[in-house]
Amino acid sequence: MINTLYLPELREMLVEQKVEDMREFCDAMHPGITAEFMEGLTADETWQVIRHAEQPLPAEIFRYCSEDKQVAILEHQSRAEMASLICELVPDDRVDILDAVSEDVVNDILERLPLEERRDILRLRAYREGTAGAVMTSDVAKLAENLSVQEALAELGRQAEELETIYYLYVVDDTDHLRGVVSARQLVTSMGRPDVRLSDLMEEDIVTAHVFEDQESVAHKVARYDLLAIPVLDDQNRMMGIITHDDIIDVVREEAEEDIQRIAAVNPLDESYLKTAVTTLSWKRGIWLTILFIAALLTAIALKQFDESISKHSWLVLFIPLVISAGGNTGSQSSTLIIAAFASGDITLRDWSRVIRREICMGLIIGSFLSLIGYVVACFAAPNTTLALIIPITLILVILCGTFAGSALPLLFKQMGLDPALMSNPFVAGIVDILGIVIYMNVARAFIH
């Protein structure tokens, strides 16, 4: 919801060009709150306010504006001012926003940047989306291993103004090869020993990420080892940058959204729901719905093969929805649990046999319980109690089939190098529906004949 509390005052400041008041407004609150209060302003009005703030506030407030507003500001304001603004942004943030801007604008802005900044942006933009390199920042505290504690503190003081954050101090050699890490706390507590070298303080056993490593894998490392940041290295063990915990949160949220969409049988959206064109959204949903529709047709075809049995024993029709829903729901539960366990790192492919055994055991337990209920109900509909056994036997077999398919198919997709979430709930349910009908009718035939 748009906060309109300050809108009249802000527009009055803009009309009367009250520069000091606009500067004071930008300086009075946290940059995120300032951006929130300006949500009701146009992109042009927002920039006219924040451009008067003292450095580095314009870039900090800009970071909290919506992406649409950021893009509009970059595309329609002075290129010289925009180049200055981009220089103030942290490397990973400026790469992200430039990726959303038209290429002509990007090239125009890049031409106005200092050579070092331009090279850094081009290097970071070259990494493929979804890799560690694409989400890392090149602003990192790097110190030489031969520095003493006193020299390291002085060097850190010189670097601090240019850094996004200082969680860990990375010790490197003359060619930027990572040698170890020292926490800021270690450095401060060692101030009583100012002549101690960093090479004596540093920890050499470091959790790292490769620059081309999948971002989801990096997120698992950060979560597993409870890190605030993780260093990113190239093939030669050179320090390329770091990924901070706030970027990891973005990665986790992005991966979770993709998994949820795949579980619902929707191709992941490139933009938010409201920004995605109706035609694009229809395609991403329709392609899977078409596949599921064909699966449903196969279920109908399978049912057609048993017309004779159904016509002679019409009471069997009453339990078709029961059989289908029991198998489909069980399969959906299993696939959801397995996909979620893969996403959290709770299981790996090495656990496949244990996973299958557990799902089969659960299938037997759940199937036995539901089959008892099914048998009681079937006794009232079937001609006799012997024929009523068709229902509990079918339920046990179908639920076993559901738990097996729901767990085995995501495991198979993972083994093939595909996202397990592609084996979505509706897809598993469609497969189990077909098998459920075949199982049901064959069990019925065994009893009837």
Structural key phrases:
single chain; 449 residues; mainly alpha; MgtE N-terminal fold; CBS-domain; Tetracycline Repressor, domain 2; 3 domains; three-stranded mixed sheet; 23 helices
Write up this protein.
By secondary structure, the chain is mostly helical. It has three domains: 7-126, MgtE N-terminal fold (Alpha Horseshoe), CATH 1.25.60.10; 142-253, CBS-domain, CATH 3.10.580.10; 278-448, Tetracycline Repressor, domain 2 (Orthogonal Bundle). The chain is built from 23 helices and six strands. The chain has helices at residues 7-16, 19-28, 31-37, 43-50, 57-63, 67-76, 79-88, 91-98, 103-111, 115-125, 132-135, 149-159, 184-189, 198-201, 215-224, 245-263, 278-304, 307-312, 320-344, 352-381, 385-388, 390-415, 425-448; strands at residues 142-144, 168-172, 178-183, 209-210, 229-233, 239-244. The strands form two sheets. A three-stranded mixed beta sheet has the order 1-2-3. Strands 4-5-6 form a three-stranded mixed beta sheet. Helix 3 packs across helix 5, helix 15 (215-224) crosses helix 16 (245-263) and helix 22 (390-415) packs antiparallel against helix 23. The chain is elongated and about 90 Å long. The mean pLDDT is 85.
Helix and strand arrangement:
Elements: H1 7-16, H2 19-28, H3 31-37, H4 43-50, H5 57-63, H6 67-76, H7 79-88, H8 91-98, H9 103-111, H10 115-125, H11 132-135, E1 142-144, H12 149-159, E2 168-172, E3 178-183, H13 184-189, H14 198-201, E4 209-210, H15 215-224, E5 229-233, E6 239-244, H16 245-263, H17 278-304, H18 307-312, H19 320-344, H20 352-381, H21 385-388, H22 390-415, H23 425-448
Parallel strand pairs: 1-2, 4-5
Antiparallel strand pairs: 2-3, 5-6
